[in-house]
Amino acid sequence: MKDLLIISNYFPPEMGAASNRIFQLAEGLSKNQNVSVICPFPNYPTGKVFKHYNNKETIDGITIKRLWVAPSVSKNKFVRLFSMLSFSFSIVWFFLWNKIPKTIIVNSPPLLVAFTSLFFLSAKKHRLILNVSDLWPKAGLELGAIKQGFSYKMLQKIERFNYNKADLILGQSEEILIHIKTIVPKTETLLYRNFPNFSPPKIEPNDVDHSTKIKIVYAGLLGVAQGVFKLCKNLDYSKIELHIYGSGAEEIQIKNFINDNPTLPITFHGSVSRNELHRELLKYDATIIPLLNRIYGSVPSKIFEYSRLGLPIIYFGGGEGENIVKDYKLGWVAESGNYSALNEVISQLQRSDFDSGLKIQIQKTALKNFDASEQLNVLNSLI
Predict the structure, then answer these.
(1) Is residue 204 part of a domain?
(2) Inside any domain, residue 202
(3) 170: helix, coil or strand?
(4) So where does this one cross the membrane (predicted)?
(5) 79 lies in which domain range?
(6) What is the CATH number of the domain that holds 281?
(7) Whether residue 48 is found in the same domain as residue 64
(8) 168-171 sheet: strands from edge to edge
(9) What pTM, to 2 d.p., does this model score?
């Protein structure tokens, strides 16, 4: 088997879609390649390095090399920039003193980490595969995290450089690939969605209790892009109760809001492991997947993960994700950013909508259409 290196800013034990996606990619490829990963010491989303992690370890046959980083969750753009650059510096140091496999998968964003990797490796005739999960800087502009100006133009140049240096580009949405093709029309691309590969739970028949409220759960990053704090403030709770799992930048605001509004049926459960979360999610009637704004290219991986659990989805983010939920009949959608429309959708829900028959059908749809092994086989053939 040949050697393959994955370079990622996120990796377990960090939680979240990015970390899960890269571990699953490494695990799947390790069946046919000798896979190693370089990543920072774990720190996301707390901004503090987790305790008791060495700079090298092996998990399920994957060699993981953790490099120095100056972690931060500061809102100061210069502090954030230094944090990103610190991992880039570590990557350069690693390249100087270690033998690098001929085939490398580089994950983006962050753009600067991808740029550093591609800049140093492109001159040495490596096969470079760029795995694009979000369209930066475009997504940052839509989120309000970046403004038009000199910095934005520089990031666009870095983005173009990255695409031009890649031999193969993976995108997790059709919109991402469409955008990339406008820049590098001749570069080979592959749609590689964030399909999960865990064993699906058996959904047992159940009787719906019509006397209780509909139990809706949000589980994931509590960041600016998700807008869970604003969601808490704008939901109509007359028919529902909301349960929240996760951590992130908005966590304190959400906790304070719950404390200030004790009569609202909102429960914050904090962070749990992925396996424990899957068990917890089976207790709920539906999950809500919000985005504060419609982000071009974004398809939340929760769509594929939660449908595999058989959990009906209320999608509130627009774009390609909305189309997937509608086309595969995975639940309900509401116009992105329109909280009145969201509450109207929720007001029409009935307890009888959430019987086990619906959950079984959603799970069957997910197992049939969101197959991680099929796309992994295609990727293996291209490496």
Answers:
(1) no
(2) no
(3) strand
(4) 78-97, 103-121
(5) 3-196+371-382
(6) 3.40.50.2000
(7) yes
(8) 56-59, 62-67, 34-40, 3-7, 103-108, 127-132, 168-171, 188-191
(9) 0.86
Query: Are residue 327 and residue 282 in the same domain, yes or no?
Result: yes
Give every CB contact of residue 64 below 8 A, 6+ residues apart in sequence: 11, 36, 37, 38, 39, 56, 57, 58
pLDDT tens string for the chain (383 positions)? 789 999 999 988 887 778 888 998 999 999 889 999 999 988 776 777 788 777 888 888 899 999 988 877 666 667 777 777 889 999 999 999 999 999 999 999 989 999 999 999 987 788 999 999 989 888 877 777 778 888 889 999 999 999 999 999 999 999 999 999 999 999 999 999 989 888 899 887 776 665 689 999 999 888 888 999 999 999 999 999 999 999 888 999 999 999 999 999 999 999 888 889 999 999 999 999 998 888 888 899 999 999 999 999 999 999 999 999 999 999 999 999 999 999 999 999 988 888 778 999 999 999 999 999 899 999 998 88
Residue 207 lies in a domain: no
